[in-house]
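Dear Dr. H.,

I hope your travels went smoothly. While you were away I took the liberty of generating a structure for the chain from your last submission, since the lab meeting agenda had it listed for discussion. I wanted you to have the full record in hand beforehand rather than looking at slides cold. The sequence, exactly as received, is reproduced here:
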Amino acid sequence: MENQDFNKNRLISIFSKIVKTGNFTLSSGKKSDFYINCKELLLKHQCMVTVGSCIWDILLRLSHKNVNERSDSIQTIAGVTSGADPIICSMVGFYWMNGLFIRKEKKGYGTKNLIEGCFTKGADVLIVDDVLTSGKAIRHAYNVLVENGLKPRGVIVLVDREENDAVNLLENDLGIPIYSIMTKTELFKKIEDDKSDNEIISSDSENIVKGGNIK
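The corresponding predicted structure, in token form, is as follows:
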């Protein structure tokens, strides 16, 4: 648990530094006053390792909760490209899981598959995504997996934007648990805490200078 909390807090600290504020249009088409480009950090080795560790910790709990068998019963991880791609690669590379990329739509050439990767029908699958807003990508992934004979057992997202009651709606509609590594509230709390700490440091430094201790 201590290691899990350490990794989570580390990610909150890192990702809080790339939160951008302003006027943005999200992939869902909705407007937002903040934006997080997760791939900016997910494609860095150490960050990918830490994300993988957090997901593995949650995955073990998820396996025990949903499948009364071995803790490694979920051996396949899937998500909609490209937001989920770095997360899937981290689990394939570091935890020996099988990965599946799910296309947003069929291509007009080649095999025209919506799923890229090897899988066995009936296999338990974990769905992942970088950011949860409306849950559209997760619903798409769930439907494609089920249509191809796979069994989604849960969802893990890197960041929950805490909008549209998405977690509760998804859990009710899909019947599987939704986990997040960090939330909008946690990220903005970290930003405010860092701002307060910097103001205190700045104030203390100014007082020292004015007090004549530094020339």
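Two observations you may find useful: The longest helix spans residues 184-210. Helices lie at 2-15, 39-42, 45-66, 85-95, 136-147, 166-174, 184-210.

With kind regards,
E. W.
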